[in-house]
């Protein structure tokens, strides 16, 4: 049987004993019928898995002791997905699949053609929901970290945030060794340390437009793509971006890209973009005798 994997809202350390919450106790007790000595994997969203065993099991408590920490191989690149708010519950699916596809940060935003016109309170509630979806997706696909889901912002803020990313990467490096909780008190959005070796100036900003632009292949295999160690991807709503929005992005150094002649649904476009990038960057490559490399020749 596959070892159950449980999310912990508190930071984990080796040789420590952790009491699990009621929802996890029910799953382990009544669904998996686990016993004392049973193996359990815990993760706290910080980028590591922790192997443990059930040490206490009674009517009041189910506690797991951490035996060791499993080191996770670092990434060669970082992905930020800025997604315009789509209609209905489509964002739920985008967050779930983007987490599975390894995106490192998700920023929902309002553009001029976004259909949802939420109040501040409703937007905050949705963000809490998306953070829970990201946690569950990470648990299910055995991902050791959880992508932060930022608060909903305006389109103009997205363009500015792309330029502030360098400062955030520098701060993230300082946080790598800090034993602080992996998310702020406002909600379970895990910190996402920058991969070791990421340069502050090695960013490629791409905005996708249904009216045309460079092909993704030409960008990835051009100088910008080959040198980039961080991709900031911006995808619009069902109605697409206005020409004024595209012009604003161009002025701030974004590359305008297209996805071919077919017009894709917004939830399809997001997943296609991420799948293409992750294929090129090597997330889908299995190590073949130590000879697997990403598109820039970096050994995976």
Outline the fold blueprint.
Blueprint: E1 5-7, E2 17-19, H1 22-31, E3 39-43, E4 49-57, E5 62-70, E6 78-84, H2 90-100, E7 105-110, H3 120-140, E8 153-154, H4 155-175, E9 203-208, E10 214-215, H5 216-221, H6 223-227, E11 230-235, H7 243-251, E12 255-258, H8 266-281
Helix pairs in contact: 2-3, 2-8
Describe it.
The strands form 2 sheets. The protein has a 7-stranded parallel sheet with strand order 8-7-6-11-9-12-10, sandwiched between helices. The chain has a 5-stranded mixed sheet with strand order 1-3-4-5-2. It is elongated, with a radius of gyration of 20 Å. The chain is an alpha/beta fold and 300 residues long. Strand 3 (39-43) and strand 4 (49-57) form a beta hairpin. Mean pLDDT is 81; it is low at 176-200 and 288-298. The protein is built from 8 helices and 12 strands. Helix 2 packs parallel to helix 3 (120-140) and helix 2 (90-100) runs parallel beside helix 8. The protein has helices at residues 22-31, 90-100, 120-140, 155-175, 216-221, 223-227, 243-251, 266-281; strands at 5-7, 17-19, 39-43, 49-57, 62-70, 78-84, 105-110, 153-154, 203-208, 214-215, 230-235, 255-258. The chain has 2 domains: 5-70, Ribosomal Protein L25, Chain P (Beta Barrel), CATH 2.40.240; 78-281, Alpha/beta knot (3-Layer(aba) Sandwich).
């Amino acid at each position: 049987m596959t070892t159950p994997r449980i999310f912990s809202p508190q930071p984990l350390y080796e040789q420590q004993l952790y009491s699990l919450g009621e929802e996890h106790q029910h799953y382990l007790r009544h669904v998996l019928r686990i016993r004392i000595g049973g193996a359990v994997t815990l993760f706290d969203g910080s980028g590591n898995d922790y192997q443990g065993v059930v040490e206490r099991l009674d009517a009041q408590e189910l506690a797991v002791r951490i035996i060791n920490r499993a080191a996770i191989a670092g990434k060669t690149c970082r992905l930020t997905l800025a997604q315009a708010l789509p209609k209905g519950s489509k964002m739920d699916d985008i967050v779930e699949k983007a987490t599975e596809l390894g995106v490192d940060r998700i920023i929902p935003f309002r553009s001029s053609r976004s259909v949802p016109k939420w109040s501040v309170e409703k937007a905050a509630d949705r963000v809490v929901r998306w953070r829970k979806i990201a946690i569950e997706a990470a648990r299910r696909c055995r991902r050791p970290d959880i992508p932060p889901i930022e608060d909903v912002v305006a389109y103009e803020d997205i363009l500015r945030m792309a330029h502030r990313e360098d400062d955030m990467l520098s701060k993230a490096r300082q946080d790598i060794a800090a034993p602080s909780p992996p998310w702020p008190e406002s909600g379970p959005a895990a910190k996402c340390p920058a991969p070791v070796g990421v340069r502050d100036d090695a960013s490629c900003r791409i905005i996708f437009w249904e009216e045309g632009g460079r092909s993704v292949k030409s960008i990835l295999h051009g100088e910008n793509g080959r040198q980039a160690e961080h991709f900031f991807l911006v995808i619009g709503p069902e109605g697409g971006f206005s020409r004024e929005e595209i012009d604003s992005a161009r002025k701030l150094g974004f590359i305008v890209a297209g996805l071919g002649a077919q017009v894709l649904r917004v939830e399809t476009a997001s997943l296609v973009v991420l799948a293409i990038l992750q294929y090129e960057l090597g997330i889908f490559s299995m190590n073949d005798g130590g000879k697997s490399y990403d598109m820039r020749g970096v050994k995976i």
